[in-house]
Each structure stands twice: as C-alpha cells, then as structure tokens.
Amino acid sequence: MPAGGVTSIATDACDSNVVYVLMEYTFKDRGHLFRSNDGGANWSQIYPLGNINWVATSPRQCSTVIFNRSDSRGHYQYISRDAGSNWTSSDPTSWIPVSFAGQSDRAYGEDWLSILLSENGGESWDRLAKPGEPGWRIEALAVAPRTPDHLYAAAGDGNRHRFYRSTNGGAGWTDLGPAPNSVSKLVIDPNNDSVVYALVKFYESRDPVLKSTDGGAIWQPLP
C-alpha cells in the first residue's frame, strides 16, 4: 500500500484478516480504496477511482462492503457482495455515513438534513423522524451496539447545538439538552448503552471530549 494517511478502516464480518482502508495522499488526491487479505501484510487497490468518502462492512454478511463516492454529478453509493470484485451503484444520493445496527442488515445513516434507515444492508433507504428544529443540520449519529433501537444524535444550526436520544429506532426523539458547541462524533460504549462520548470540535471548545454515564442527561468533560 503506498504511503499516505488512512481516513477510514473496516474489517470483514467473517474473516478478520480481510481489511479495507481508505487512503489520502494529498487534499486533492484522496479516498482510494485498498484491501488486504492477510491482516495488512499485503494490499491491493480494489476500486480504480478516488474521492471515496467512507467505507463500511456488514457485520453479518460475509464479503459485503459498501462505500460512498462523490464526483461532479453528486454522491453515489456502491455495494459489493464479493469483497470488492464487483460493484453495483445507486442513483445520485447524499453523503450517507453508514452505521450497522448489531448483527443485522439494519443500517442507519444521516445526510445532514435527515436520519435514514435501511433494512437491507444499505441498498435502499427510508427517511425517519429528524431531531432538532426545522433547518437544523444533523452533526453526528451513533447506534447502540447492544440495543440497535437506541440511537444518539447531535444537531444544530451553527449557533445552537443540542443532544438527542431515540429508544424506538429513530421513530421519535427526546431532547437531552444543549451541547456546548458543534459535535463531530458520538460513540456509545459497547457494554453500556447509557455511556456515551461526544467529540466537540476542538477549535470551538476547551473541552473537546465529553462523557455521559446517564444516557445523555448530564455531560462532563474528560480530564
């Protein structure tokens, strides 16, 4: 694998030696997809073009990998069922980062303005109820590993930012209160759905990582 920065990584559901990474060489030369079949000892590029935004693998279906790529026409989603040998693409769509819900074909995504749900591993999507006020942008989304109906989200309008939780798979949302600034990532403890971490954009906050141990009701900065 040529030298560069790794921007995304995923492993196959059935073979941990099969690893996928996205490489970035420069700001304009980014999003190249590589696969290793031997745990990272050797690499081969499995898609000829760059500008891939993220890569994910199904937690249940062997050899299933999905990515989103952008070009001058928009964003396209690609799925392979044979570890990247063949690809099928969708119609132009938005940038939808995928989070699979446990060991199932259910996946959640967000395209900044909506929460989306797929029940077929990302091949098609339905829009769910959106947290936040009209016009607010979805900043981050996380799915509880043990309880896939439990979701956390952050949304804002550039000046105001708030945390939200859903316990019914995104059908409805509970407002958990304000976030100090824009949230770029949410991570849920795999052993406890009530423990959540929030990465606040560092240039806007003195406390870049927050932690909640009560399902998002109270957030404290990490030391």
Describe the model.
With 223 residues, the protein is mostly beta strands. The protein has a domain at 98-223: YVTN repeat-like/Quinoprotein amine dehydrogenase (Methylamine Dehydrogenase, Chain H), CATH 2.130.10.10. The chain is built from no helices and 20 strands. It has strands at 5-11, 19-24, 32-36, 44-45, 52-57, 65-71, 74-80, 88-89, 98-100, 107-110, 115-118, 126-127, 137-143, 151-156, 161-166, 174-178, 183-188, 196-200, 209-212, 220-221. The strands form 5 sheets. A 4-stranded antiparallel sheet has the order 1-2-3-4, with no helix packed on it. It has a 4-stranded antiparallel sheet with strand order 5-6-7-8, with no helix packed on it. A hairpin with a 4-residue loop joins strand 14 (151-156) and strand 15 (161-166). The protein is globular and about 45 Å long. It starts with a strand and ends with a strand. The relative contact order is 0.09.
Assign the CATH superfamily of the domain at 98-223. YVTN repeat-like/Quinoprotein amine dehydrogenase
Any idea what the radius of gyration is? 18 Å
N-to-C SSE string, H for helix and E for strand: EEEEEEEEEEEEEEEEEEEE
Strand content: 35-45%
CATH topology of the domain at 98-223: Methylamine Dehydrogenase, Chain H
CATH top-level class of the domain at 98-223: Mainly Beta
Q: Quick check: average pLDDT?
A: 85
Give the termini separation: 37 Å
Count of individual helical segments: 0
Structural class: mainly beta
